[in-house]
Amino acid sequence: MAGLYKNYIDGKWAEGKSGKTFENRNPANRNDLIGLFPASVLEDVDRAVGAAKKAFGRWRLIPAPKRGEILYQAGELLRKRKEEISRVMTREMGKILKETRGDVQEGIDTAYYAAGEGRRLFGETTPSELPDKFAMSVRAPMGVCGLITPWNFPLAIPTWKLFPALLCGNTVVLKPAEDTPHTAVKLFEILEEAGVPPGVANLVHGTGGETGAALVRHRDVRLISFTGSTAVGREIAAECGRSLKRVSLEMGGKNAQIVMEDADLNLALEGAVWGAFGTTGQRCTATSRLILHREIKKEFTEMIVDRAEKIKLGDGLDESVEMGPLINGEAREKVHRYVHIGKEEGARLLTGGAIYEEGKWIDGYFYRPTVFDKVTPAMRIAREEIFGPVLAVIEVEGFEEAIEVLNGTPYGLSSSIYTRDVARAFRAVRDIEAGITYINGPTIGAEAHLPFGGVKETGNGHREAGTTVYDIFSEWKSVYVDYSGKLQKAQIDNAE
């Protein structure tokens, strides 16, 4: 029998006030009911925010190195339970075990990194312009932070937000995606065991339209960190703007891999396959456009089609499977709709383009790896985020055109170029409009100690991961200590 799960508020597992629940099902087999989770309402959010607000007064006074030690312990527990959580995640959202293990490992890495920052939460000292005066800047916590996270990285992305927020001395309320609540429960079990005090970290399940919206609008939430679609991000930004609430947005992408005529084609092939079809194309960093130099276009297109047709689909818990299902029926319908759009636009379907319902996979949300040729930069399949295993091949005459095509979308998250020419590589780094650029690597594969985020409609300028995430979750305070024993009026007394 499927379990009945709860919210986590003020250090206790609590039922939702409405008594209503929603189902969590395995996308590889919709008959597999994982559990029932509370459809939280405003009262649940209010309780969670109230608990976080009350706990903030105590948590912010715990020295950052001590907060870091708790996060290090969380990392150790994640490491010990890595396989268990990976299997929970694969069953819940479908991607293969190799990838869910990587997802958990990213959470482990983030915990260790945050723990180290507990002893490095640097401010700055700088000379004052006046004598007998000391000047410095220090970081201060924000208060209660609302975190809204997606389903495609149900452990990594929550930890990207939650660990730095806690390290900075904030308290948090997390609203995970309704498609992946079970992984969030496992994360909060670990936080509790690691010693995070009651009220410091709270979990409320529910929909974005009700639970997420209540969190965004709550007057006691000082910051919202959101990862998801650009459309929802716009709404959140507008709402936060009305209350002058800090907001960090990480949204869509339409990432491209350039393959030049001098590239190592076998290496580029592995990158394209992994970038386009890893996580069933359900990454904001997924390779959805393949920009090929005309001299290698025919050969490389044949290579990618041949490899795509050999990808083994199935349940990600099977170690031999290379690609799992889409997250749900709505996602699969969207992918299929874009395939029809591509055909109507005049693109040539080379492989895939069909729902996969064979044998025992008839009850899952599978879709065949899909490759389009004869795609032009103006086509919708070359400009709009599909979020599925659909790759659009675009031919170019040379390097300058390749860069122009890559930059020609509203997004700017990740990018890639394969070339042996070091001058081209550095020009690409200079000229590509994206937050991330890979040289001779695929568009996916972020590391926890580097900034993550994009430009244009991908985000609002903030960067998660790395040291930059600590600027999201802390306030800067400038401090002046005047030991001159007299009034010094800064620029007034400093002027000649």
Task: Explain how this protein is built.
There is one protein chain. The protein is an alpha/beta fold and 496 residues long. It folds into two domains: 3-251 and 459-478, Aldehyde Dehydrogenase, Chain A, domain 1 (3-Layer(aba) Sandwich), CATH 3.40.605; 255-439, Aldehyde Dehydrogenase, Chain A, domain 2 (3-Layer(aba) Sandwich). Helices cover 38% and strands 23% of the residues. It has helices spanning 42-59, 64-80, 82-93, 97-117, 156-167, 181-194, 208-217, 230-242, 265-277, 294-308, 329-345, 399-407, 422-431, 469-472, 491-494, and strands spanning 3-4, 7-9, 12-14, 21-26, 29-38, 124-127, 133-141, 144-148, 171-175, 201-203, 223-227, 246-250, 255-259, 287-293, 348-351, 355-356, 366-367, 370-373, 390-396, 411-412, 414-418, 436-439, 455-456, 474-482. The strands form seven sheets. It has a seven-stranded mixed sheet, sandwiched between helices. A five-stranded parallel sheet has the order 10-9-8-11-12, sandwiched between helices. The radius of gyration is 24 Å and the shape is globular. The mean pLDDT is 96.
